[in-house]
Amino acid sequence: MAIRLIVGLGNPGPEYEQTRHNAGFWLVDQLANSLAGCRLQRESRFNAFVGKGAIAGREVWLLEPQTFMNRSGQSVGALARFYKINPDEVLVVHDELDIAPGLAKMKKGGSAGGHNGLKDITAALGTQDYWRLRLGIGHPRTSASQQAVADYVLHRPRKEEQVLIEESIDKSLRIVPLVCEGKFDTATMQLHTV
Question: Which residues are annotated as a binding site for tRNA?
């Protein structure tokens, strides 16, 4: 198996564009911009921005749901069914509270860990067995912040955090060709090596 669909999670609208919760959108935007002839365009039947490009010689779909985060599964499920993409051919890129800014981790399956976007995707795909690329945004408790989690993810990162998140996105983009070839062990080892 190899990845045929890369989903970036976030919330639509300019008021959310720069918030921590949109880290998945940031990566997919950069990926689309790096691929020849790939443009993310609104597709009403999927309620998402959709693009297609060649990565490692393979056709890969890019998707940014334009529902709110907790309804992301609508778009993911609709596109996966339409193009007959199996759950283990899906990579969901999302913000991760339990990982520090500057780090990214990849895994297949597991619980949603309180992430409402993942919960909805799991429900839409009927399984937890899809790949996740988790971009660390840190947790308010680790910065001694009294901010509630919902408030924290819907705010912009501090400048120093933004730099670290961008570094983790750059590192993550370098392993995308490997996952599109199905070289998950190599990709994971590269990503997890600091």
Answer: 16, 68, 70, 116
